[in-house]
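Two records follow; treat each independently.
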Amino acid sequence: MLSYRPNAHTTNDVVRQAIIPMTAANGSSYAQLVNRGEPKMPQKMVTHNWSNLFRDLLASVIADALEEHTFELVSALLSDEVGINALEQMIQVQGNLEDVYWICAFAVNQHSGICGANPRADVDPVTMLPHPVCSCGTPKFFNSTPPLNQHGESIHCEMNKFDDMMSFLACRDVSFAEVVAVDASLELFSRAWCMAELFEAHRMGMTQILLVRNKDTLLRRQHMLEGLRVQDMKASRQQDVDVILAKIPNKDAFNQRLRSLILDRNVGLLTAWKQADSLQQIEQLSHVLKWARLSTSVEDGLQVWQNWV
């Protein structure tokens, strides 16, 4: 993706301009391509929104691997090649380079879904050229594409199986966890699929790990979450919203449980995050020493300290 700019391109841009063209010849997902068809069982799944910066999605995953609670420093390091190389070496030193994460942009076969159209006329934010449309010819399966199951959902569609995927992986591994990659604007909490995944993970008792840009961003914007309503949430396709809403018979009760899941002062996700962040601040010396150890173990480790402040 020659036009790629870390501070401009979203996950949607990267899927459209890198992942889809890269996998067109195979008509496969990116994960199938790079793993040469060999199944990989993930330890964690990542809930994220495609309008988030792709850099910040990766920063959230790397921050989780480095046992951080914010991704601002990692995001800064991902903005140039020297920082990227330093991070890769640091993850290797940490012993997490082979950890496997399930991310829909990579794991879902985009050629059996969205690749053949650009319905919103999305453009590259740098070149302002429309995202290309793929001509691979792979059959497409959306939510209502026959054959349908007893609930009226497409059997072959990969984009309506997230709850099944989570249940399958959680049953195979009791430690399977959800990483919630929260974008700087907290838009994730307005996305229907993201909230459906968040609630499903909670229902199944999965460990949920919140990654935010920094504490100030969270504290400044958290009031936006107090009026969360699933009826107001969005998805790239209205059909997806309809499917999610159809699965929720009592929407008012769902909204109340969702707000409690996120905002409850005793057990909510934001409370848990703040407690974990506070503990890390209390242990600030060991936190700094960890980064010092990692940065001195790699080439160009000085780059870490240049981005620390």
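The next record belongs to a different protein.
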Amino acid sequence: MSTDHQKYSTENQSTAIRAYAAQRGLTIVRTYADEGKSGLRIEGRDALRRLIDDVEGGSADFDVILVYDVSRWGRFQDADESAYYEYRCRRAGIEVEYCAEQFANDGSPTATIVKGVKRAMAGEYSRELSAKVFAGQGRLIEHGFRQGGAAGFGLRRMRVNQHGERQGILGIGEQKSLQTDRVVLVPGPPEEVETVRWMYRAFVQEGKPEREIAETLNGRGIMTDLGRPWTRGTVHQVLINPKYVGHNVWNRVSFKLKRKRVRNRPDMWIKAEGAFAGIVAGPLFEEAQRIIADRSRRLTDEEMLRGLRTLYEIHGRLSGLIIDEMEDLPSSSTYGHRFGGLLRAYRLVGYSPRRDYRYIDINRSLRRLHPEILAEIITGLKTSGAVVQRNEDTDLLTVNGEVSLAVVIARCKETPAGALRWMLRFDNGNDPDILVAIRMDARNERPIDYYLFPRIDQTAERIRLAEENGLSLDAYRVETLDLLYELAAPVRIRAVA
């Protein structure tokens, strides 16, 4: 369960499961419960992981697993993931029964169809809930309420009730206790407020850079809101944050449905100007932003890369924090905007970060592999006697002047559960008569099989392939392209007769 305020609380589930067991003469010997955990990902689901380990490790002292309903495996965005965990239990010889469902989990076609629908519905529920929560949070931002995050130096979080009456300052790590309460930002202690104003004046009016401001603050014994010494980066964050002029800004970064964290474009931000009392004058703040923007605009691409290359030689590595700490370089966000992402800027100066970016190399390798596979297919067609023409712009093949072929490579991806998946996009723009889809192995080094889709069945823009897909998809699967070559071989009319 993810919250206490729902029918899926572990207590309610336990009651229903015990009643189900009593009616059928089953004895419950062990309980696995993930309390207060999101079902969107397997990460954090320690009890579910322990269940799978016990089942597959042979230490299970039970014959049946009782689950409240299909959605309790998880509200995964990939419906096959919850099916995968059930499959692993059944493969180990442990039956799975659902206590609150209206069907028997007996492997019948009806049960299979219903479970598939319910798994998809569980994922859709999370998507709809995410959209509703996002809209609600956006409305609260527009009304001037804070949606998480530390207040920052010079500001404090104030708890207010539903009537807007102040209820007290929240300390670091404290949260409001009532759902109807809200949080707003208010000016902090006078000495902190004056320090923030001095930082802006020193930067705008006196021309002091961020590093010099940080050194001055540290020399005065002033610490950040987290009790740490000031750095060039922490001063920079104060100078660019619109909350100091009273603007409430949200959705600069998204992390929806526990997926990849993305930095949104400014036009996607939700902003309420003058939502609360600012501690810095608007013109002073705007002038600080202009200075920061002009500082990066003066540099050419080559000058920016030269500075980044020098920084790499000094530190032996690069990161956003290291870049932001350099006084004479633009910020890391400026590098990202100028060069289409920090990773590309790193590559231009010869730096490869330790983080796993193998998917980029895989995509690059597959792009190199595509012409080779295309040449092999052309050779195979010609060997069978077919006449093949290739469109140099689209790589579309025309066989015997009658049939067009498009060749696509499906990269293999591993889900968090360890299952393999392939995303296949139909090349509808070229409208081929036959789409030859090549499914790569787990290392994306060589083809493992092929799918031949005729135009009449290319109805969707994309499909997701699993290791086993059922007759509806695997009917198009072949181990080799020999069938394609045989079909392409020209046959004399006399021989047919």
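Discussion point: Residues 300-348 form one domain. How would you locate this feature using only the token line?
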